Structures are given as C-alpha cells and as structure tokens.
Amino acid sequence: MAGTTYWYLEHTSTGRKIILQSGENTLGRHSSCKFALTKYLFLSRRHANLIVRNDRRVTVESMNALNGVYINNRRLIGDKYPLVCGDTIGLGVFTDSSRQTDVPANHAIFVLKQAQINAEEIYEISDDEDGDRDSAANQIPQPPEIDLPSKAITCAKTGTGSA
User: pTM of the full predicted structure?
Assistant: First the structure.
C-alpha cells in the first residue's frame, strides 16, 4: 500500500510537534481553539488558523492577533498567506533564522514540516463499534498526535515570498 503525507508544526527549539488535520486548525490560548497553546507567551485567544486544503496545500490566516503572525520573520500583512514546507511561523514573536535553536520554550515559533507514514505501519485504524468496519478499514486516518514510525520529508526551500 502507498503511504500518505501529513503536515505538522515543529517547535524550533523543543522539537514539540503539532500534527495538523485536514481543514481548519485554529491556534491560540482559548480552549475553543483546536490547539489551545496555553504554555506560550504573546498569543491571543484566537491567534491564527492554519488551513490544510484538500489539495494538501497549507495556508495561514491571521485572526487579528495583537502581536501578529510572522512568516519567515516577516509580519503577515493581509488575511491569508500560502505556506510551503520549511517555512518558519512565529505566533506573536519572531527570531533571527540563524538562531532558531535558541528560541525560548515559551515562544511559539514553529517550522512547517511534512512527513510520510505508510499504511503498513498503522496498527489499528478505529475501534468504532458501529459495525461498519469495511469502509473504515479502507481509509487512511489522519495521523494521531503520537509518535508513529514515519519518514520526514526533506523540505526544499524555493525562496520565500513577501508576507
């Protein structure tokens, strides 16, 4: 069986990963966000939305965050911006790209990455009790937020646009 790819954010110094789901992925301090990032400074309640589209492209949308959204150390101007693998996303803060490993653990600065997981590596897809196991068995689920065997895809930077 062929593998599937998924997007995730990796904190630049701690390595902590946030696995993005298809559709909207809201980030902020508030519990209504898909990812409530309460351990980070300078975040608004609803700071940003990363949208994973059906064509597997990722777009970032500012949610009028007071301290801004930074893409590759440039403040996002406007509502939405397309991202590529390897982009650095700063939520409320930015850093010199040469010093990314020195980022304090409580600053929300991440790198957008992609990984591949093979269907053979999935042990259990669902423990759904509705009896419709045939259709679930043929679907590859969204990657869960655990450390599954996967192969990181090397991001080739093709240049950065102006945010």
Answer: 0.73
